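We store chain and fold; thus.
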Amino acid sequence: MAEKLYYDISEVSELTGVKAYVLRYWESEFPQLKPIKTAKGQRKYKKKDIEKVQEIKTLLHEQHFTIAGARKKLSRKETMTEKKPDLIQVLDQVKRELKAISAQLSKPVR
């Protein structure tokens, strides 16, 4: 199937092997899965939504998580992803400070 900006529910079902009624159910159980709805109520999935469906499917069918467990795991993953930029900034600051300290220590004593 060609790469598109939006996919309808039947295309997502075909791509992922998850029935349309299961996709609709998962929307109610996983706040991370939020396809766009048109004025007529049709669901339009982006590539990131399809990736999320695949991730949910893996957690439930292959790793045997319960729905509550999979929801919790996805929530934790999102929290860690949100914190990542902050951590990178902190590490960059620590690196700059260590370089400054190293430069001070490597100066000859007079």
